[in-house]
């Protein structure tokens, strides 16, 4: 039995220890609490951009130096927006370092165990896996906030008709609404306490969430601030409209659930069958991985599976 070289194992252990120390340093290290609090509400942007406050004197941390370089890249702002939308307590620099370490570690592990091709596949999975998780978490959070918006508007309307002002009504929402709406509206009220205008704080929340229904609500509030009017009645009408829209969306999802499940089955069935056949008859699918016609057929099969899955998702993506 051939023993694997200890060098890849040592590199993986070193990377794991480095990642652990970086995580502990970011979690428990010394930070400027004022900068951290103001940065959460948009007063201070990420490292490398201009700040609303004067720059602090003193040594610049490694994260800030890396941030200054990272944020010059075109995709860095999108990554920072996705992190805010998913409500993850990481900066773009920290998340990019996590992706790099995970991708490099899986590349070395795959290369040591299965060769360069396996290393490339696992490395790509390590690089893109966190991005998939980030998008999935942000999408779920956006859906939750949108689904809770009719109840939030009902609570707002009741508070306004009870004689509260808009700011007081939003405080009631921040106190009584379920998560994640509770934390989002609480962040709005804390931003207002720090001096941000209420329309601007609501606009920042809408940009952070990325929901069309929330954009409609914020637009109505901004118009009311400029022109006045019966805000309670308008919000009640909007709440009824959004509630009916959500009902139609759920009905569409229930009607297309079988087709969506069929798409997942069609994608997963070839992989499941290949694994089962390999366990029953080892070596039966090896010709597909050999250079020549077998590898061409394997690549064509994977490409057609992906295209078919994307087409099925596009057909079933009905907008209301």
SSE layout and pairing:
Elements lengths: L5 H23 L4 H8 L21 H9 L5 H11 L5 H23 L1 H46 L4 H11 L4 H13 L4 H12 L2 H16 L3 H25 L1 H24 L12 H24 L4
Helix pairs in contact: 1-5, 4-6, 5-6, 6-7, 6-11, 7-8, 8-9, 9-10, 10-11, 12-13
Helix content estimate? over 70%
Mean pLDDT, nearest integer? 75
Instruction: Let me know the number of strands.
Output: 0
Please outline the major beta sheet. none
Write structural notes for this entry.
This protein has 320 residues and is an all-alpha fold. It is 77% helix and 0% strand. The protein has 13 helices and no strands. It has helices at residues 6-28, 33-40, 62-70, 76-86, 92-114, 116-161, 166-176, 181-193, 198-209, 212-227, 231-255, 257-280, 293-316. α4 packs across α6. It starts with 5 loop residues before the first helix and ends with a helix. Mean pLDDT is 75; it is low at 28-35 and 41-60.
Brief descriptors of the model:
mainly alpha; about 325 residues; 13 helices
Compact overview of the structure:
The chain has 320 residues and is mainly α.
